[in-house]
């Protein structure tokens, strides 16, 4: 999300957002950013596993590369 757009949404007087709603919005954005960062990290780790390690967890190299190639915001959870 564009930071300027977020700032306009949060601080726009026409929206009349209370302090609690602003805090909830900021927390939600932080949770989403943290989740995306974690997904990117996990996908990089998955791509770095050896064939033996992938076999141990029951996935093929093609499946690992397919998952690792997904963008960080592509979250099916």
TrEMBL record:
| Positions of the YjiS-like domain | 31-64
A Pfam family (short name) is YjiS-like
Cited InterPro entries:
YjiS-like
Could you tell me what this protein is called?
YjiS-like domain-containing protein
């Amino acid at each position: 999300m564009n930071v300027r757009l977020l700032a306009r949404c949060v601080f726009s007087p026409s929206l009349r957002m209370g302090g609690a709603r602003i805090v909830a919005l900021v927390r939600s954005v932080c949770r989403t950013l943290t989740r995306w960062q974690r997904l990117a990290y996990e996908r990089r780790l998955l791509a770095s596993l050896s064939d033996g390690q992938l076999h141990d967890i029951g996935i093929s190299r093609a499946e690992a590369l397919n998952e690792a190639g997904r963008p960080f915001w592509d979250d099916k959870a």
